[in-house]
Amino acid sequence: MILHDLMSYELLRVIWWLLLGILLIGFALTDGFDMGVGALLPFVAKSDVERRIAINTVGPVWEGNQVWFIVGGAAIFAAWPPLYAVSFSGFYLAMFVILAALIVRPVAFKYRSKRDDPRWRSTWDWALFASGALPALLFGVAVGNVIQGVPFRFTDDLHTIYEGVWYMKFIGLLDPFSVLAGVVSLSMLVMHGSAWLTLKAEGIVQTRARAIGSVAALIAVGAYMVAGVWLAVGIEGFRIVGEYVTDGPSNPLHFEVARTSSWLVAYAERPWIAIAPVMGVLGGLLTFLGLRAGRELSTLLVSKLAIFGVISSVGLTMFPFIMPSSSDPQSSLTVWNSSSSHLTLFIMLVSTAIFMPLVLMYTAWVYKVLWGKVTETDVSENSHSVY
């Protein structure tokens, strides 16, 4: 318990804020290209063989990649219980659509090649498209809503109340800025999926992926920059008023919160965080150039750089807020008022330090063993053992 005593509550909260970001970025970097390939499927592959080539580029790894999403959800539940409760209740219908899509995806992978029937396979191919495009879009929409503030408040006994009627929990999410954030997310993951197909496929599938991915990269960069300008001039931010305690009890009503002119005041207070949006824009432009030049591995790496920059820019800009409230800023959730207990965070950190390296080593081994391109010959000669 000596280490437990040395690690302050404040430090553990920051560590778990960082770990949550790492898990979300890890999900986007890995399962992101799976969703991107799914969203690209009807456009990069016209024949059944071409579709099977595209599908089998992610076939061996999609299940492991999806684990990042599950672990991220578990981390929110265990480390940030109020965030889990407020977000899952407020975004319930959107989360239902995302989970339904992620449930359909494994069924589509497993079933689409079980029957040699064009209509059967086409149905499951469109299911793969939907299960890739919908989550990619809705994850961005959710982030756009969080940036603007979510319309919830806490009662004195910490019961959560959302403003508006139930259907607004889905339709109300689709405001212009949030839809723009969804476009950033979708185009970014399509770009990432294109970079993956460039690396793992060949022939006409690879050629189409490069062409579509180039357009997606420009859309992602353009939409991200427009969102940044919009954030600067059209969306208020949040700040904690006065002195506050960073290692106090987790009470969402613990601090006084007020609105600010813009979230971007954070860049005046912490100029170093500007590196995140620079990485996002630079990574997207380099991905565009890499796709146009026909480079493969380096293009995938700079695509990952773009995703890392875009997602980290959101977290760094909003820190210490993780879910602000638009209807009652006082109820906003921050790193300092919505975590689990000191002991819980410490035990979770020890467990993570033991098991995370094992997961990473296994993942690296899987990618090493299954490295290489998927060819038409591979699909034809192993027709009964591949997707």
Please, could you describe this protein's structure?
The protein is mostly helical and 387 residues long. The protein is built from 15 helices and six strands. A two-stranded antiparallel ribbon has the order 1-2. A two-stranded antiparallel sheet has the order 3-4. Strands 5-6 form a two-stranded antiparallel sheet. A hairpin with a 5-residue loop joins strand 1 and strand 2 (160-162). Helix 2 packs across helix 13 (297-318) and helix 9 (176-200) packs across helix 12 (275-293). The longest helix has 36 residues, at 9-44.
Helix content: over 70%
Percent strand: under 5%
Q: Helix/strand/pairing class, anyone?
A: mainly alpha
Supply the number of helical segments. Answer: 15
The description of the largest β-sheet is:
2 strands, antiparallel
Q: Mean pLDDT, as a whole number?
A: 89
Order of helices and strands: HHHHHHHEEHHHEEHHHEEHH
Low-confidence regions: none
Widest sheet, order of strands: 1-2
Nearest-angstrom radius of gyration? Answer: 22 Å
Tally of extended strands? 6
CA-CA gap between termini: 50 Å
C-alpha geometry = globular
Question: What descriptive keywords fit this protein?
Answer:
two-stranded antiparallel sheet, 387 residues, 70% helix, mainly alpha
What topology emerges from the helices and strands here?
Blueprint lengths: L1 H5 L2 H36 L3 H11 L3 H18 L1 H10 L1 H20 L6 H31 L3 E3 L5 E3 L5 H4 L4 H25 L2 H32 L2 E4 L16 E4 L5 H4 L5 H19 L3 H22 L2 E3 L9 E2 L7 H28 L6 H6 L6
Antiparallel strand pairs: 1-2, 3-4, 5-6
Helix pairs in contact: 2-3, 2-4, 2-7, 2-9, 2-13, 2-14, 4-5, 6-7, 7-9, 9-10, 9-12, 9-13, 10-12, 12-13
